[in-house]
Amino acid sequence: MDRENLKCLFENYRTPFEEEKAMVPGFLELLDDPDAFKRERKAGHFTASAWIVNKRRTHALLTLHRKLQRWLQLGGHADGNENLLEVALTEAREESGLQSIRLVDKSIFDLDRHVIPANDKEERHFHYDVRFLIEAEMDEPLIISPESKDLAWVGFDLTAELVGFNDSVLRMLEKTSKSEILL
User: pLDDT, tens digit, for every residue of 141-178?
Assistant: First the structure.
């Protein structure tokens, strides 16, 4: 996946969520910046995430993020890699220990632009997160990475409460629940 392919994915991306539709122009604008995939771009940069679900679509794998202290999907910085699908798959493996993950679709599953608060190492900035739908088996052992405090397969019925009603996670949950890709 190169910048041209990513541009095509952004331009053809469709979502029923108005707040998500409104983000697409910003993603396209960022794509024109030569440093868009580098965390050194202080205003904001691309990240990639994996929305990992079980085959039956009853659970999602979430991580308790060490720095943010919130339950989230797995993902991370592109660190110069312009292939965001590859970044999402790599982050999924590194942050979970899962090896038997399966990409459901090469299309973008979700987009989210969110603020990362300032901390000791960096100022406040934005993540332009491109998310992909991934499947995994719930019986495979999990390995907690240094970036996480915990990992858990969370039932869809408990996700909203656990994530603190995080709109972007709830949006992915709703998309998964309504998905035609059941098996």
Answer: 999 999 899 999 999 999 999 998 789 999 999 999 87
| Segments making up each domain of the chain, as ranges | 3-177
Burial (CB count <10 Å: 0-12, 13-18, 19+), residue 44: buried
Token digits for 51? 């929305």
Contact 169, 63 (CB under 8 A): no
Of 170, 168, 174, whose CA–CA distance to 47 is shortest? Answer: 168
Burial class (CB in 10 A: 0-12, 13-18, 19+), 160: middle
Give the CA-trace dihedral at 167, 172, 176, 180, to 10 degrees.
Answer: 110
Strand partners, 30: none
CA distances 51 to 65, 118, 125, 159, 162, Å, are 15, 25, 22, 13, 16
Helices marked H in the chain: 3-12, 18-21, 24-31, 84-96, 156-162, 167-177
Topology (CATH level 3) of domain 3-177: Nucleoside Triphosphate Pyrophosphohydrolase (3.90.79)
Q: Which residue's structure tokens are 């541009």?
A: 7
Q: pTM higher than 0.85 for the full model?
A: yes
